[in-house]
Amino acid sequence: MTEKELTEKPDSVATIPVPDELQMLRKRVLELEQLEKEYRKNLEELAQKEAFNFALFNYNPVLTTVVDTNGRVVKSNAAKLKSGDRIPKIGDIMYIDYASKHEIDMYSELMSAMKSNTIKKFPELKYKDKFISVTISPFPQGAIITSQDITLEKTSEKEKIDLINHLQRALDEVETLRGLLPICASCKKIRDDNGYWNHIELYISQRTQADFTHTLCPECLKHYYPEYWQKMKKPESNA
Predict the structure, then answer these.
(1) Sign (positive/negative) of CA torsion 124, 126, 130, 132?
(2) pLDDT tens track, the chain, 239 positions
(3) Which of 39, 197, 217, 226 has an alpha carbon within 20 to 30 A of 58's alpha carbon?
(4) Are 127 and 148 in contact (CB under 8 A)?
């Protein structure tokens, strides 16, 4: 073999990298390995966030339904599924195919909230025989609708208001008996605000819930019916 043949490199043999190129390749490999670690770490963190968000949504005790930008139902949480109410189907248009009997146009309210990207709260809505509180919270892909049945609270509130009104009426009745009452020194009739004279029983019964029973005190019995007073007195004297 000639010297020329010995010095020439065949085309099929790869060029051996110089030390600087090897160092650069090792550095690049380390960078790629670090990127892969960060990528896997980000995937793990993302999976944890997704799991947390799902748990927060699904196990939230508040009834929750998610709709897309067209108002179509995407999913409902466990509280909604276990509420005993009719469950919206995936694809139903909220407040048209489902929950359409509100006294106000809730579908327009939903579309308005998503269009303006504004949270809308309805603290007290009458729906059939119930009272519910509804909140519409828009996000880029649609809206989250939460609802709470406040019928019991509303009923309790009404009972409290009725009780307060009853007590207020009773207080007003008591207030009418305050102050000076013009009463006849002879027949004991009372003069009302219109200037009419009424028997004391009538005056009081019209302004309070008191009823009257008529009897005689011992002094009047002795004065008007002495014979009966004597009969009543004898057993007491023998005792």
Answers:
(1) negative
(2) 455 554 555 555 455 656 788 888 888 888 898 999 998 888 888 888 877 777 777 778 889 999 999 999 999 999 888 888 888 999 999 999 999 999 999 999 999 999 999 999 999 999 988 999 999 999 999 999 999 999 888 888 778 888 888 888 777 766 655 666 788 877 778 887 788 888 877 777 777 667 777 777 888 877 888 887 787 766 554 44
(3) 39
(4) no
Q: Residue type at 125?
A: L
The end-to-end CA distance of the chain, in Å, is 161
- How many angstroms separate the CA atoms of 214 and 207, rounded? 19
The pTM for the full model equals 0.52
Residue 28 has what DSSP assignment? H
